[in-house]
Amino acid sequence: QVQLVESGGGLVQAGGSLRLSCAASGRTFSSYAMGWFRQAPGKEREFVVGITWSGGNTYYANSVKGRFTISRDNAKNTVYLQMNSLKPEDTAVYYCAADRTRTMGIAAYEYDYWGQGTQVTVSS
């Protein structure tokens, strides 16, 4: 079992930056692929970015490519999402998720554990 706790959300003006963190419990964190998803009001949850267990491979949604960066520190059981050049359309609840396989998926059903989410609001 893995528990995930996100932090770092908040209110920021367009063009600003935020850094989200996702702290995981459990000794097997380093063997899990991790992902970030987001859900805006009235919309379905969408994939943002994923990272393999080693951090060697990442995959970004086109909407955030070049602006967001995912990283992980397996010694700290933490995955990060650096978000730069934020836009109002980035406003959503951001969730981190863990996939027990070592690869990463882009579909929500491929992930086994989820955090409760952190709100990101970007004002224009």
Helices, strands, pairings?
Elements: E1 4-7, E2 10-13, E3 18-24, E4 33-39, E5 46-51, E6 58-60, E7 68-73, E8 78-83, E9 92-99, E10 113-114, E11 118-123
Parallel strand pairs: 2-11
Antiparallel strand pairs: 1-3, 3-8, 4-5, 4-9, 5-6, 7-8, 9-10, 9-11
Characterize the structure shown.
- There is one protein chain.
- The protein has 124 residues and is mostly beta strands.
- It is built from no helices and 11 strands.
- The strands form 2 sheets. Strands 2, 4, 5, 6, 9, 10 and 11 form a 7-stranded mixed β-sheet that branches. The protein has a 4-stranded antiparallel β-sheet with strand order 1-3-8-7, with no helix packed on it.
- It has strands spanning 4-7, 10-13, 18-24, 33-39, 46-51, 58-60, 68-73, 78-83, 92-99, 113-114, 118-123.
Helix content: under 10%
Shape: globular
Instruction: Describe the sheet with the most strands.
Output: 7 strands, mixed
Give helix and strand order, one letter per element, not per position.
Answer: EEEEEEEEEEE
As a percent range, the share of strand residues is over 45%
User: What Rg is obtained from the alpha carbons, in whole angstroms?
Assistant: 13 Å
